[in-house]
């Protein structure tokens, strides 16, 4: 690994016996599938049994994430750029982060050294806001074996585990065969029709002030889709940026998920990125089947004839 150096190891352990990921060990088998603690990940890295993706990103400073990765990352971690690897080309009608093409995503995985026998682990420094997009894309393309590092890079560093700097050398592998699971995604017209027919419930992951239209730091129009409910993705996190336990997540989603089948829940945000974190958190809570409005707010406002709402939901 070019320019590799180890930064700051100490003797602390990431996970204490009997309390994996800081949770009651018997309370949540789903979290064992979707989340991994730093201590367990360190063992997988040492054994060469995982493929780790660093998904750090900044929507307003797109180069910052890669620079942070070059400065320090989990040993062997490959950088996954939200704009370049986890999205496709922007068009005049699309949102800011359209879904990548099958070919481009398969090529990215091949360059990264993906193998079906490796456990894929994604992390960021933003409570899973970007790592969950990679998790969701793997699920969408039929490779749903990804896990998020609970607490992200900060949890790894707090555990005193080693970091590495410089680019990561990877062995190119054959491109995986991908099959899109089209039922997991809705297009704008399907959202329009679903809202009109009350056959779906739209859940917006953006912060409350952006949702209400009080601020808009990224998109040219402020507000939200009429009828959408607001569940900021930050609500799914503890103060240390780890995910809340399953019961707390289920309680938090009660307002938006009450009396409706999960398949009729459709998540959105500014461009289909942080909405994936809400979908991930719902699965942690045992609510599986929710779908993604991939174009989200940035695609909705492409057409000035579409309605815009201001203020709180409801």
What would your notes on this structure say?
With 314 residues, this protein is α/β, with parallel strands linked by helices. The protein has 2 domains: 20-158, Rhodanese-like domain (Oxidized Rhodanese, domain 1, 3-Layer(aba) Sandwich), CATH 3.40.250; 182-300, Rhodanese-like domain (Oxidized Rhodanese, domain 1). The chain is 30% helix and 11% strand. The chain contains 11 helices and 10 strands. The protein has helices at 29-34, 38-47, 64-71, 102-112, 131-140, 152-158, 188-196, 208-212, 246-257, 274-284, 296-300, and strands at 35-36, 50-54, 78-79, 119-123, 146-149, 185-186, 201-204, 229-230, 265-268, 291-293. The strands form 2 sheets. The chain has a 5-stranded parallel β-sheet with strand order 1-5-4-2-3, with helices on both faces. Strand 4 (119-123), helix 5 and strand 5 (146-149) form a beta-alpha-beta unit. Helix 5 (131-140) crosses helix 10 (274-284). The longest helix has 12 residues, at 246-257. The chain is globular, with a radius of gyration of 19 Å. The model is unreliable at 1-27 (pLDDT under 50).
